[in-house]
Structures are given as structure tokens and as C-alpha cells.
Design brief:
Rossmann fold, about 475 residues, 2 domains, 20 helices, 6-stranded parallel sheet, alpha/beta, about 40% helix, 18 strands, 9-stranded mixed sheet
Length: about 475
């Protein structure tokens, strides 16, 4: 079986979030299971030169973009056994940043069309074309409208994964013909809410639509989570499913992690407290092994539940003897709030504004409790990473958080959970975690249980293989 994985970002080349983690890890795991998976992404200016130096030029071609044609270069390199293709066009991609440009509609229309146009040139004929998010949602649209009946392209199946339904690629209807290059008759496929909606078009045309957790696949049928697309998804419910993401257990491994101060394992957890005291010293917190340290590594945006934290963190710090560390960047109001919180609680709070990967590893390794009170969380990786490092998650039961964290109140779970999006409910869960921490003997049992959870990519890769085979079998 051959799979082409289409993505707008992939680690280690260019990354803004969870999609890059998936695109960098899942294809490798598929190849380990003898699936011929290759990846294609844009040749961004942001890709470091060290990776460019190892790329090989394969071919060039002319790609139709509505009424005009544009140059496309195709480069390739190998990472961990997987082949990565890069679509080059300096007009579209030789600029700083991956997204947020005035012509993103055209940039990713070009990329999506180029993905299909390049295949005969590189002599790679996939059985499955797997698109991701709105940036590549036009791939199944173009395939169904322009390529499905061509002899060379016949019998391919398309999959679209929604990593976050909030981002849909919505533009004015004028882009349908002038930018995307679809006939006026295709408006019924692409239009939603008076706009051309790239994600909606992909949902309509893909043979299968997946999300990054089973719970999120159910949640986005509800208007609370769907950002308007619930009616479309309800009509296409028969082809919608969810597969939980995994994490790279080699990158996130407390036994070998080069970014932490002391290595440890589920069998010997003595090194964890050394990481805690080292981080306390580094961040000017009161040095104490007994004080519970609560950590957060997150984007500072509202849907991460930061309004709940803002409403209750003062009460928590005033009523308990805990410490709080947060790492992230985002909305100015939250950055300002956490900076001021640090000033009000010196020695107990540290707000690290920005994103420093090595510091995130130190926080996972040092924290006793890891807080994720998200309003919505399609999958979430931080809770899985926290488990790997023995930091016990406190999470709201939503999306992938619900699928990966179960409450330890029954003596079997791996964290502490709450249901309602309410600061009082969150505080109860945090207090239960702090009370659990006071019983160190029981806490070590919980830590060991958490560290032994398996959220590697192996299970997820097997689920995708099963999905691909079902598509080909029933196609």
C-alpha cells in the first residue's frame, strides 16, 4: 500500500503546532509497518539551511492556478527512512512565516494542485492521498473534479484529517474561479455561510474524514464545538471518525532526554525530584521538595481554559502551599495577567512568556501536577507528554483529553478530571490532586501508573492502516 501524506508543516522542517508533530511522526510509524508512506509539504523560506543542503532536485513542472500557470519545483530528502517532497515556488513560499499572508487562499490552492500534478513526474502512484486541515483540503476537491477519471489517477482514495475545526480557510466567493480555478457549478461544493470554505469542500469530496481523537469526532457534530460546520458534518456522519494522536516516545523520554537535569524511569523515579529542585533554582522559586509544583505548557489563548485559571489562581495560591509555572505565548491579556501574577506571588509563580522547547521539557520533568483545563482540545499532546514524565494531569473532559486521561478516584485512573467548563469544578479537581500529592506513597503509585501509559504512535498507526485498508477494500 502506498500513501501520500499532504501537510502544510512537518517536524523537523517547519512547525507551528501539533500538525507538524503528527506529520513528522505518523509517516515514520507507517513505514515501520511496511506502508509506503511519503510526505509532501511546501518549500518554505523558514526551512533551515542544514535541511536544504540534503535536498535533491527532482523535476520542475507548470501548475495551473485558475487562469494562469505557475512554476513548481520538486525537491526530496529522507528523514528516518521516510521520503519528504517539497513543493517550491519562490513567489508563494519565499517569505517569512508559514501562514497569515494576504494571499494564503492562492498559496495553498497552488500547493494542493501541485501535489496532484507532480505525481506522474515523480512516478509515485499512491493508493491513498491523506490531506490535513484546510491548507490541503483542496486536494480531495481537485482530485474528485479534475483527476479521478484520468487513467493514471484512477482508483485513488482520499482522506481528510481535521486537526482543529476552528480554522477553515474562509474567503469571498470570487476566489472560486479567479484563485481556486473551479467552475461556477462547483460553488455548491465549496460554499458555506456565504463564503468559499476550503475545509467544507474537503469534507464534501474526501472519501473519509477523520479527527485527531474519537471524542472530538463526536463533539464537532455539536454547534458548541463545530464553528458552524455541524450541519455539514451531520450530513456526512457516515464517513467521519476519530483516531487519537500519539507522541514520539524517543523525543519525550525521561530516561534519555538531554534537556532535563536528571534522568529517571518508572522503575527508579528518584531523579524526578532533582529536576524539580533544579527548575525551582533556575526560575527563582522557593526551593522545596515538599511543595507541589503545578505546571502548564500552552498557547496563551482563551480556548485553552486560561479564563478559568485567571478567575481562580489567586484563590488557589492563597489557600494552598503550591507553586505555579506557566510557559507559553499568545494573547496580550493573558501574557500580562501571568506576568502580574508572578509579581504578586514572588518565589511561588513563574511566568515564562515565549516558547523555549528545552524549558518545556524541564517543566514536564519537574512538575508534580500538569494543568490542562481546555474549553476544547481536539487531541492535545501535552497531557500525554506529562504522563510520560510522571507529571499527573488535571484536565477537563473534552476531546483527546477525555480519551487519554481517566480520573484516579477509582484507583485505576492516570489523572484528575472535571466535566463542566467552570472554575469551581476545575478548582475541585486541583484540590483533589494536591490532597493526593500529600500522600506520597499513593502518589508514587499514581506516578508509576502514569509513566507506564502507552501513547506512542504505534497504536495510532495501526488504526490508520485499518482505515486505509477498509477504504481500498470497500471502494
Amino acid at each position: 500500500m502506498k500513501v501520500l501524506y499532504c501537510t502544510s508543516e512537518a517536524r523537523p522542517f517547519a512547525s507551528t503546532g501539533g500538525l507538524a508533530e503528527v506529520a513528522g511522526s505518523l509517516p515514520q510509524q507507517l513505514r515501520l509497518r511496511l506502508i509506503g508512506c511519503r510526505v509532501v509539504m511546501p518549500m518554505y523560506e523558514d526551512i533551515p539551511q542544514e535541511f536544504r543542503d540534503n535536498m535533491k532536485f527532482l523535476t520542475s513542472l507548470s501548475v495551473p492556478v485558475a487562469w494562469r500557470r505557475q512554476y513548481c519545483g520538486v525537491f526530496a530528502t529522507h528523514v528516518g527512512g521516510a521520503i519528504f517532497y517539497f513543493i517550491d515556488n519562490q513567489y508563494y513560499f519565499k517569505r517569512s512565516g508559514l501562514y497569515g499572508h494576504y494571499d494564503d487562499a492562492e498559496r495553498f490552492a497552488f500547493f494542493s494542485r501541485a501535489v496532484l500534478e507532480m505525481l506522474p513526474y515523480i512516478d509515485f502512484k499512491p493508493d491513498i492521498i491523506h490531506a490535513n486541515d484546510w491548507q490541503t483540503a483542496l486536494v480531495p476537491v481537485y482530485y474528485s473534479m479534475f483527476y479521478a477519471e484520468k487513467e493514471w489517477f484512477r482508483d485513488m482514495k482520499t482522506v481528510l484529517t481535521i486537526h482543529n475545526i476552528q480554522y477553515q480557510g474562509k474567503y469571498g466567493q470570487e476566489v472560486l474561479q479567479d484563485v481556486i480555478g473551479l467552475p461556477k457549478s462547483a460553488l455548491s461544493v465549496m460554499e458555506f455561510g456565504g463564503c468559499v470554505n476550503y475545509l467544507k469542500g474537503g469534507i464534501e469530496c474526501a472519501n473519509c474524514v477523520t479527527t485527531v481523537s474519537p471524542t472530538y469526532a463526536t463533539e464537532i457534530l455539536d454547534p458548541w464545538y463545530s464553528h458552524g460546520l455541524d450541519s455539514i458534518l451531520l450530513e456526512r456522519k457516515w464517513k467521519l471518525g476519530g483516531i487519537l494522536n500519539g507522541i514520539d516516545i524517543d523525543v519525550y523520554n525521561p530516561e534519555t532526554d538531554p534537556d532535563i537535569d536528571s534522568h529517571y524511569s518508572a522503575e527508579d523515579m528518584s531523579g524526578k525530584v532533582k529536576n524539580k529542585t533544579a527548575l525551582q533554582k533556575q526560575l527563582n522559586l522557593v526551593s522545596s521538595e515538599q511543595i507541589p509544583l503545578i505546571g502548564m505548557v500552552t498557547r496563551l489563548v482563551s480556548h485553552k481554559g486560561l479564563d478559568l485559571v485567571r478567575d481562580s489562581i489567586d484563590d488557589l495560591l492563597n489557600s494552598t502551599d503550591c507553586q505555579f509555572v506557566i510557559l507559553g505565548s499568545g494573547d496580550w491579556e493573558y501574557e500580562t495577567f501571568f506576568r502580574e501574577l508572578q509579581e504578586r506571588f514572588p518565589g511561588r509563580v513563574c511566568a515564562c512568556i515565549g516558547f523555549i522547547p528545552e524549558l518545556s521539557h524541564k517543566i514536564y520533568a519537574a512538575s508534580d501536577i500538569f494543568l490542562m483545563p481546555s474549553k476544547s482540545e481536539p487531541c492535545g499532546l501535552s497531557q500525554m507528554i506529562a504522563l510520560r514524565y510522571g507529571s499527573i494531569p488535571v484536565v477537563r473532559e473534552t476531546g483527546g483529553l477525555k480519551d487519554s486521561i481517566t480520573d484516579s478516584g477509582d484507583g485505576k485512573g492516570n489523572g484528575f478530571t472535571f466535566q463542566s467548563y467552570d472554575s469551581g469544578d476545575m478548582m475541585q479537581a486541583i484540590h483533589r490532586a494536591i490532597q493526593g500529592y500529600e500522600n506520597q506513597e499513593g502518589w508514587k503509585i499514581l506516578m508509576k501508573r502514569a509513566m507506564e501509559c502507552d501513547y506512542s504512535w504505534g497504536h495510532s498507526a495501526n488504526e490508520y492502516i485499518r482505515l486505509y485498508r477498509d477504504l481500498l477494500k470497500n471502494g
